[in-house]
Amino acid sequence: MQRRRKSIDAALRSLRVESLRGDALRQLANAAYDLLRSERRAPRRQVDAVFANLTQVARRETDPDLRREAVYALGQWYRQARAARVLLGIVGDAACPPLIRGQAAEGLGSTMPRTPRAAPLRADASKVLGEALRSPEAEVRFWVVYTVGQLDLREHRAELERMAASDDGEAAYMWRISLEAADVLSFWDRGEWPSRRTGTGEIMEW
Fold it and tell me: Distance between CA atoms of 103 and 101, rounded to whole angstroms?
């Protein structure tokens, strides 16, 4: 545990946005989050520093691949409201590239807290996601449908029924949005997600 804290300190001391790529970015974010959850909590300054850097990259980075990696890493901060707020802002940013908005929407499903205190944040998410369901970008619509299902936002059922009947858009390497909407409706009605085969042949079971 102490070794991991020291490794985070070292990474933060040498942290430069342009030096972080792929696995290095994820490992730093996940290590900090693991410490946050552990019985021996990491110093708040460590966790806050990692979060601040991830947020900076996720919001402002001009390299789309690096930006998407930061968004992915934030999506691993399970039930963390501050991560959910950042991701929600990205989902609602129509100027943001569709792949990044879609990644943020997927992460929102895992970062959104499920406590009564999070009710205002959940209401904000319902509004933003409801608008994003009508995005012209298939990548955004697909992952928003998925997250609406994960968050049990049944107030959008009528829109999902419409999409299940008519939305032939398709996310990269996934399947048609109409199928994803139908899967959410099935999950709501029967309590289980149907399995699907991706465009690369992988079988997905949510």
Answer: 5
> What would the pLDDT profile of 153-169 be if each residue is shown by its tens digit?
999 999 999 999 999 99
The secondary structure of the chain in percent helix, strand, coil, rounded to multiples of 5, reads 70, 5, 30
Task: Show the 3-state SS of 29-78.
Answer: HHHHHHHHHCCCCCCHHHHHHHHHHHHHHHHHCCCHHHHHHHHHHHCCCC
Cα distance between residue 124 and residue 168, in whole Å = 28
Burial of residue 114 (number of CB atoms within 10 Å: 0-12, 13-18, 19+):
exposed
Query: In degrees rounded to 5, what are phi and psi of residue 196?
Result: -135, 155
State whether residue 192 is helix, strand or coil.
coil
Q: Which residue has the tokens 């899967």?
A: 183
The secondary structure of 90-128, three-state, reads: HHCCCCCCHHHHHHHHHHHHHHCCCCHHHHHHHHHHHHH
Which of these ranges, 26-35, 50-59, 137-146, 150-159, has the smallest mean pLDDT?
26-35
Residue type, 81: A
- pLDDT band of residue 147 (cuts 50, 70, 90) is very high
